[in-house]
Amino acid sequence: MEKKIEKKEIKKDEHAVSPVIGTILMGAITVILASVVGAIAFGVSSDLPQLQIVVVTAERLNSTSIDFTYAGGPSADFVQYLNVTVGEDHVDTTPNSQLAVGSTWTYTTSDTVLSDRNHVIAVATFGDGSAQVVLDTFV
Asked: What is the pTM of this model?
C-alpha cells in the first residue's frame, strides 16, 4: 500500500488586511484628536506662566561704567523692581518709584576695571510676585 500524500495549497486571502488596518488607524487618530481637543477645552495649558514683556538695555560707557535704560513695554506698569547683576557683582535693586519709562541709571565700579565682555543680567519682579529675566547680554 502506497501512501499518497496530498499537497494542499493554502490560499492566502489578503483582501481583508487593508480594511482592518485602516480601521485601526482611523480609531487611533480619532482618540488622539479627541485628547488634544479635550486638553484645549478643559484648559490643561492654562497652567503656563504668563509672559511679561518689558525691555531693559545696557551700554558700556568706559572701562568702569555701564549705563542701563528702562525702556518699558506692555507690562511696564506691573514691574515692582529690577535686580541687575554685572558678572558676579549684584549691582542694584531699583524700586518702582525709579522705574519711569526711559529712565537711565549707571553702574560704576571704583575698585576694578570692567573686562571687554561683561555678563549683564536684569531680572524684573512683578506685582504678582513672579520674576523674569528681561536682559541677558554681554557688554
From this structure: 0.62
